[in-house]
Amino acid sequence: MFTPLPYSILNPFEISSSTLISIIVSATGIYFSVIIYTKISGKRSLSKISSFDFAMTVAVGSLIASTILNDSVNLLQGMIGVATLYTLQFAVALLRRVPLIKNLVDNDPTFLMRNGELLHDNMKRVRITEADIRSKLREANVAHLSEVKAVIFETTGNVVVIHKKDNVEIDDWLLKDVNT
Fold first, then answer.
1. CA-to-CA distance for 134 and 142, rounded, in angstroms?
2. How far is 29 from 35, CA to CA, in rounded Å?
3. Class of residue 49 by CB neighbours under 10 A (exposed 0-12, middle 13-18, buried 19+)
4. pLDDT tens per residue, range 8-26
5. In the sheet that 148-153 helps form, which strands lie side by side, from edge to edge?
6. Cys bridge to 29: 15, 69, 75, 76, which one at CB 3.0-4.6 A?
């Protein structure tokens, strides 16, 4: 049995004037709400410093899209949802000063290579391959492994290459939280 396609699929570019106005008002309202909330809570709220920060960024984006395009979410509901996320982000940022909360929310950076030697157990634990590291080394303009002091997988998911320079040791403070 043949079921006809809905009209909206057959005519994807047709939109009523009330729907268009609703999208414009919602987009404008949620856009300015996010700007105001970010100003109040600080730039950190949209950073990707930890996994919680990344989740915040994704959740805000999802709420913005839902508020703008989903008929079942009105502007006030979207604004309240985004405000709730910003409040949670602010609270967790404060609570991260407590070591237990910090350990629950944040990932620790991990050595992937030290003094030119790959650390295969660490690579396996964080699911990074040799090909991933080679790519990052090329990106960092490394011509020889002997040029590499360390490769660190950061809490944000970034891979950082620290070059050897005149046999200068890396300051211990910079390596304080790095898993060996």
1. 9
2. 10
3. middle
4. 555 666 767 887 888 888 8
5. 117-118, 110-114, 148-153, 159-163
6. 75
HSE-up of residue 32 (Cα within 13 Å, Cβ side): 7
pLDDT value of position 131: 94
> CA separation (Å) from 146 to 1, 3, 115, 166?
69, 66, 7, 12
Q: 87: how many CB neighbours lie within 10 A of its CB? A: 12
Radius of gyration of the chain measured on its C-alpha atoms: 23
Per-residue three-class SS string for 58-117: HHHHHHHHHHHHCCCCCHHHHHHHHHHHHHHHHHHHHHCCCHHHHHHHCCCCEEEEECCE
Residue 82 to residues 58, 59, 111, Cα–Cα distance (Å): 11, 8, 36
Over the stretch 33-92, which tens digit does the pLDDT of each residue have?
A: 888 887 887 766 666 667 777 788 888 899 999 999 888 889 999 999 999 998 988 888
Its CATH architecture, for the domain 107-175, is 2-Layer Sandwich (3.30)
The residue among 71, 108, 77, 87 whose CA lies nearest residue 37 is 87
So what's the pLDDT on residue 12? 62
**Residue 14 has which token pair?**
């047709």
